[in-house]
Design brief:
It is a single chain. This protein has about 525 residues and is α/β, with parallel strands linked by helices. The chain has a single domain, classed as Glycosidases (TIM Barrel). It is about 40% helix and about 10% strand. It contains 19 helices and twelve strands. It has an eight-stranded parallel β-sheet. Helix 5 crosses helix 8.
Length: about 525
């Protein structure tokens, strides 16, 4: 579907400020919504919200359905009566500009466990009923997720394929015994999901009330060490011991000369097709309850995908395999209706991929950092854009605009200024204007570019196993002056919210319109 002319900011909630070491769904998330509204923005784009695992990556989660308990606001838990106020009064001092994940996770998990105990001891009848209703409504994924996490804890965090064989193979007797032995831990994990989704829906409802839609993110693949793979092994290429035989990645590209070896297990699309893509439909329904628009990561993988032997150490020797293509999206459309989906179509894109995208009228993505150095036919140059496009200065996988530009040669910088037509001395703002004045229906800018930050604020280095996802902005960064500057460029290029006039206004509406014109 085609989106109206608008703009937004890319910021994951972990990057919000606050005293608990990482951003969360507390008051600062509501303040950020207020900033978006003051800046005339209609969109807030985030990364996946799932429970992060390996490397703290939101693209490697323990579940494709669950939320990340680390995003739970501890202050809100105090307000709800699950934590005493003194529990959050004397916390360690955490860095303000990045997440030190190890100490933060240790401190926060201790308090979340305390909140679980507080719920068991002090939950009101209404809270208990609401929790039970949530558990029942979400049991299709929640039961397996909570059991998976409890089992993972009981095995010292080990990957599920190393557990006892009867648990690996999900023998009914072994699962029932685990449910009985780990009942308390299972309820704790369900409680954290209930809290997460309550807090997230408070944020989303507030954003929507301000005219701001949330753009969420679905990674095409799921993590191997996840409840999804453990509970649905028939949907993936696994051997008899539960080990993947082929894994996901991409061939050598802009980001890496040896390709990117993601390591995710690959889908058995034939099995999914026989089931009417039921698992994917449930996944999309779940996220469309959480967000308004979905960015579908690695869109080309639905047409064809790079399959790498699981024993390889890099992605060079992979091969292209056929994806589900149009049949998948036709099924989604028949079941879900219009698809509010953005196709992440970056990298090496074939004509078949573009045809698949355009058949379902899905907007693709353009990154301005990719626009220079290949001549005037470069598809990332704004004069080559189509309207049904989402343009970004850069994404979470790119350096910031200031950092990227500083590493270019003088000749490369001069070519950019030649295209832009001037050098204002503020390259981040020059690129923001370039995005906003383009014909692309939607322009999205990472907050780092509005703050004119350098490489120190980069969110992710693709292919780097650790040390990513940690950037945070400081408490006083979002000033009224910055909101005013963003509003000015948004209004200048026609991206502010304009309510549609009724096609056949009645007499009262016409009078009201006449008064407004006066």
């Amino acid at each position: 579907m085609e989106f109206p002319r608008s703009s937004g900011i890319l910021l994951h909630p972990t990057s919000l400020p606050g005293r608990f070491g990482m951003g969360d769904l507390g008051d600062n998330s509501f303040r950020f919504v207020d900033f978006l509204a003051a800046a005339g923005q209609q969109l807030w784009q985030i990364l996946p919200l799932g429970p992060t695992g390996y490397g703290d990556s939101p693209y490697q989660c323990f579940s494709a359905f669950a939320g990340n308990p680390l995003l739970i606001s501890l202050d809100k838990l105090v307000e709800q009566g699950f934590l005493p106020g003194e529990a959050v009064a004397n916390l360690p001092t955490f860095p303000a500009t990045h997440v030190d994940f190890g100490p933060v996770i240790q401190a926060k998990n201790a308090l979340l466990n305390q909140a679980i105990a507080g719920f068991k001891e002090r939950a009101t009848p209404d809270q208990r009923r609401d929790f039970e209703g949530f558990s029942e409504a979400n049991k299709a994924w929640l039961d397996d997720y909570a059991l998976f996490m409890a089992l993972k804890d009981s095995h010292g965090g080990a990957t599920w394929s190393s557990w006892e064989l009867d648990l690996v193979q999900r023998q009914p007797e072994a699962l029932q015994k685990a449910r009985e032995d780990l009942a308390g831990q299972i309820e704790g994990y369900k409680f954290l999901q209930w809290v997460f989704f309550n807090q997230w829906y408070w944020v989303k409802t507030y954003a929507n009330s301000k005219g701001i839609k949330i753009i969420g993110d679905i990674p095409i693949f799921v993590a191997y060490d996840s409840a999804d793979v453990w509970s649905n092994p028939e949907l993936f290429f696994l051997d008899e011991k539960g080990q993947p035989t082929v894994v996901a990645g991409v061939p050598p590209d802009y980001f890496s000369a040896t390709g990117q070896l993601w390591g995710n297990p690959l889908y058995r699309w034939d099995t999914l097709a026989r089931n009417g893509y039921d698992w994917w439909i449930r996944r999309l329904r779940m996220i469309l309850n959480q967000v308004d628009i979905v960015r579908l990561d690695h869109f080309r993988g639905f047409e064809d995908y790079w399959a790498v032997p699981a024993t390889d150490s890099n992605a060079i020797n992979g091969r292209w395999m056929k994806g589900p293509s149009a049949a998948f999206f036709e099924t989604l459309q028949n079941v879900l209706g219009d698809l509010p989906i953005i196709a992440e179509d970056l990298g090496q894109i074939s004509r078949r991929v573009m045809r698949l995208r355009d058949t379902f009228q899905l907007p693709g993505m353009k990154i301005l950092h990719f626009a220079f150095g290949a001549g005037s036919s470069n598809p990332y140059l704004p004069h080559n854009f189509e309207r049904n496009t989402i343009v970004y200065t850069g994404s979470h996988d790119n350096d910031t605009t200031v950092g990227w530009f500083s590493q270019l040669s003088e000749q490369e910088q001069a070519e950019i200024f030649k295209y832009i037509g001037f050098d204002s001395g503020d390259i981040a703002y020059d690129f923001i204007r370039l995005a906003f004045r383009s014909v692309a229906n939607v322009a999205v800018v990472p907050l780092q570019d509005y703050l004119r930050l350098g490489t120190e604020a980069r969110m992710n280095y693709p292919g780097r196993a650790s040390g990513n996802w940690g950037w945070r902005f400081e408490e006083n960064a979002l000033t009224p002056e910055l909101a005013g500057q963003i509003y000015e460029v948004t209004e200048l290029y026609g991206r502010t919210y304009k309510p549609a006039e009724p096609e056949n206004p009645d007499e009262d509406a016409m009078v009201d319109m006449a008064v407004k014109k006066k």
